[in-house]
Amino acid sequence: MLRIEAVTKNYNSRGRLVTALRNTTLDISKGDFLCVVGPSGSGKSTLLLILGGMLSPTAGRVLLDGQSLYSLSSDKRASLRREKIGFLFQTFNLIPYLSALENVQVPLILAGANGHCQKERAAALLERVGLGDRLDHKPSELSVGQQQRVALARMLVNNPAVILADEPTGNLDPDTSEQIIALLEELNRENRTVIMVTHDPRAAGKAKRTLRLDAGAVTAS
Amino acid sequence: MHLRTIVWRELFERKNQLATSFLAILVGIAAIVSIKNVTFYSEKAVAKELDALGANILILPKSASLQGYYSADMQEEEFPEEYVTRLSSSDLQGLDNLSPKLSVPAEIEGRQFTLTGILPKSEFQAKAAWQGAGIFSRPEGCGEVVGLTSQSPQPAPETLVRRRVIDTLGSAQALVGAEVATVLDLKEGGTVTLLGRPFEVIAVLPQTGTVDDSRVFVHLHTLQELTGKGSVLSAIEIVGCCNQISKGLVQKINRLLPDAKVVTITQVVDTQIKTNRMMSRLSLVFLGIIILVGGASIANYMYANVFERRREIGTLMALGANTSLILRMFLLKAFLLGLAGGVGGYVLGTVLAVSLGPRLAGIPVLPMWSLLAWATGLSLAIALVASYFPARRAAHLDPSVVLQEV
Questions:
Q1: Pairing mode, if any, of strands B232-233 and B79-80?
Q2: How confident is the model at residue B289 (pLDDT cuts 50, 70, 90)?
Q3: CA-to-CA distance for B226 and B196, rounded, in angstroms?
Q4: pLDDT surpasses 50 at B140
């Protein structure tokens, strides 16, 4: 489903060339649950952004269902993200002035869904993540665990085939982390591909396979 | 939910910044609306006052001198009355109170006076060709409209002295100047014999201290008949709209009547033009200030807004928003801000003009609906232009950078 071929990403930081990802090749099949681990600055988030079509590699190709992502224009990549990829962030990235229901509706606005359909689908997903009674609450009125569940519902609303999660449990207490990981496992059982960056060994233990990155290079798989 | 819901909610998320930016555009637009509103009515009032001073354009025979005209307005040469038709049927804008005249010396009861033939407005009404575009219909800001079809009460014959126009004058009627009346002991209702024909004195004109005091006015066509001169004139006096004069009205008349001499009474015209120019310059200065201050304030607000919302923008991009959607989101916000500033500024500016105008300028000021479209258009243009570059910056943010910022 996802393939990266000899991908290298270099940054220029204060006149110095920094290699965030070094000649990496990787195949991720449909329904896989891949966990990416490694120390800070090892290139985990860079890998996730490259897989999500948000950061073009310096060299190499990224293929999603056989389509080379970076041969597309940025607007076409945005459209592909909307249809096939769901992002989950460590800091949830909810829009603070919108309610839980409206936050979940946002990807549907971008997809051009009608108002009634938006509300129905967003409410159903919030119900699924256990927030059916918090539809009109703003993010500031929710606990961090609840906020991450709203973000999860928002990520799911366009029914993505690929889920890219960047330390989704990084800001959560152990119990809430368990709940989020359980939800991701459930989504993986629905044959969605999950790629998760984490520092949490318990979360990593739930994945089908683990990839270790060190200084931009894959050191174990 | 629509994109506009997101924009609307966000508008009220940062109320203080919004209020500052909105106030800048509101106050600016209000200031310029009130100045334009007061200026419009002030220009009208000034034009009306200056209009009362008399004609400001003279059409004379080619060889005539202005000095000669003022001493007795009698020239050696004359020109055809057809010139009036040419002026009336032209598309020249800004001609008002067209007053054709023929003056001849006349001896009345052994004394020398000037006999002047004038054309009353009723003659213009009778001739369809003389109701052509431009005559007696003045553009905006040109003072009082003296319409031929006006239903207002007939002005007294004395208005001839001031406005150089009289509504009706019969073929056997005469108006006599103050000095003539005194010397010949003439009174209203009396009779005077001119060039061998009796005329009824319908009014004795008030004293003016000018050559008009020793004149007797009769109908132009009667005088032409009595003198046997045919359809000729010695002069055409015109009250020209000052704005149009500054736009080259005199040159246009010159082109239309190449065989005549067209002169302006510069003092009157200059005063009118200077006053109006001062007003429009003041408006321009304020326009410049509002564009600078309002535009800078909105641009600053928008740049700050983009900076504060870069994580939100990055998230939207990760969720599939493309560059045009982000651009639209910020421009829609600018549109709402501009629209509110324009409408609010119009309302505030109009209230200020209507309430303060009479006190400051001493003239009645009425609301002008045309300024609503003008104010809204200006406000929208400022808001959209000032927001374009911040919006463009937002649309081209690198999501991979903003999402990795802590």
A1: antiparallel
A2: confident
A3: 9
A4: no
**Helix or strand (DSSP H, E) at B249:** helix B249-256
How many angstroms separate the CA atoms of A1 and A66, rounded? Answer: 7
DSSP symbol at A130: T
Interface with chain A: mutation pick from B3, B315, B325, B333, highest number of A CBs within 10 Å: B315
Q: Give B72's pLDDT tier (boundaries 50, 70, 90).
A: low
Q: How far is B324 from chain A (nearest CA, A)?
A: 9
B325: Cβ contacts below 8 Å, ≥ 6 apart? A110, B3, B316
pLDDT at site B242: 61
Q: Judge contact between B332 and B3, C-beta under 8 A.
A: yes
* Gyration radius from chain A CA atoms: 17
What parts of chain A have a pLDDT lower than 50?
none
Among B354, B265, B353, B283, which residue's Cα sits nearest to residue B50?
Answer: B265
Q: Tokens 């109701």 correspond to what residue?
A: B131
Per-residue pLDDT band at B154 (split at 50, 70, 90): very low
Residues of chain B contacting A, Cβ within 8 Å = 1-3, 5-6, 9-10, 12-13, 311-312, 314-325, 399-400, 403-404
Angle at A44 between CA A38 and CA A50, to 5 degrees: 160
The predicted pLDDT at position B406 comes to 54
Complete DSSP assignment for B216-246: EEEEHHHHHHHHT--SEESEEEEEE-HHHHH
Q: Would you call A70 an interface residue with chain B, using a CB distance cutoff of 8 Å?
A: no
Output the pLDDT for position A188.
93
Burial of B324 (0-12, 13-18, 19+ CB in 10 A): exposed
Tokens at B74, concatenated:
């009698």
Q: Are A97 and B10 in contact (CB < 8 Å)? A: yes
Share of chain B above pLDDT 70, in %: 78
Mean pLDDT of B200-214: 84
Name the token pair of B105: 């010396």
Distances (CA, A) of B326 to A75, B138, B386: 11, 50, 16
CA angle A188, A194, B310 (to 5 degrees): 130
Contact at CB, B316 and A110, closer than 8 angstroms: yes
For the residues of B89-142, what is the DSSP string, one character each? TS--SSEEEEEEEEEEEEEETTEEEEEEEE--HHHHHH-GGGG-TTTT-PPTTS
Cα of B330 to nearest chain A Cα, Å: 15
pTM of structure: 0.69
Which pLDDT value is given to residue B152?
40
Contact B403 A89 (CB under 8 A): yes
Q: Starting at the edge strand that comes first in sequence, how are the strands of the sheet with B191-194 ordered?
A: B191-194, B197-204, B173-176, B215-219, B111-118, B95-108, B235-240, B57-61, B260-264
Q: Are B89 and B132 in contact (CB under 8 A)?
A: yes
| Closest alpha carbon within chain A to B329 | A110
Say if residue B16's pLDDT is above 50.
yes
- By three-state DSSP, how is residue B299 classified? helix
User: Which residues on B lie below 8 Å from A91 (Cβ)?
Assistant: 311
**Are the Cβ atoms of A75 and B324 closer than 8 angstroms?**
yes
pLDDT at B53: 58
Within 10 angstroms of residue A18's Cβ, the number of other Cβ atoms is 13
d(CA B297, CA B231): 67
